[in-house]
Specification:
It contains 8 helices and 6 strands. Helix 1 packs parallel to helix 6. The chain starts with 5 loop residues before the first strand and ends with a helix. Strands 1, 2, 3, 4, 5 and 6 form a 6-stranded mixed beta sheet that branches.
């Protein structure tokens, strides 16, 4: 019996939702390989609750850069959730970054509209997970379905949003000749 290639994936978080999203995406693209996916602490260098697209993206990029500087892997991955007051209303979203030794891909999830009162609590210094736990009387929702699950009646989840953004972020690794330069 031939042994399959092992692909090592490091995720810049110990949150099981983020680890599972990364593993499921890599497994779909490399079905004949064994995926060794581990979550590790990697500092974001941004506030616990990033506000704005730049702060959120930089947090994910910093996590990947930390992993690359301190560990060896085939892929490095990070997801950073943020929020912003857009002209049409407040929303939460995530930035994802995937890198290997040749490429880095940055992508963003879709927006989840937030109630103004919840966004205002974030601006006041609170973090989305605990705010949602308080509003919906849940416990540690950020390591489960997240605000996305609660606000969509669990039709969508935090993991499903990360999975879609990561799936699309893989394009440069699948067609590197089109993304060189």
């Amino acid at each position: 019996m031939a042994s399959s290639k092992v692909i090592k994936v490091l995720v810049g978080s110990q949150n099981p939702v983020k680890i599972n999203a990364a593993k499921s995406v890599i497994e779909r693209y490399f079905p004949d390989s064994q995926i060794d996916c581990q979550g590790l602490h990697a500092p974001s260098g941004v506030p616990e609750q990033p506000l704005g697209e730049d702060q959120t993206r930089i947090g994910a990029q910093n996590r990947v850069a930390y992993l690359q500087a301190h560990h060896q892997a085939d892929f490095y991955c990070a997801m950073e959730g943020g929020a912003y007051q857009f002209s049409y209303g407040p929303a939460t979203f995530a930035y994802v970054v995937i890198a290997n030794s040749q490429h880095t891909s940055v992508n963003r999830s879709s927006n989840l509209p937030l109630p103004q009162s919840i966004y205002d609590a974030l601006v006041a210094g609170e973090e989305l997970g605990p705010v949602m736990d308080n509003v919906f009387n849940t416990n540690n929702i950020k390591q489960k379905g997240g605000a996305i699950g609660l606000l969509t009646n669990h039709v969508a989840t935090r993991e499903s949003t990360y999975t879609q953004a990561l799936t699309l972020a893989m394009a440069p690794f699948l067609h590197p000749h089109l993304y060189s330069n």
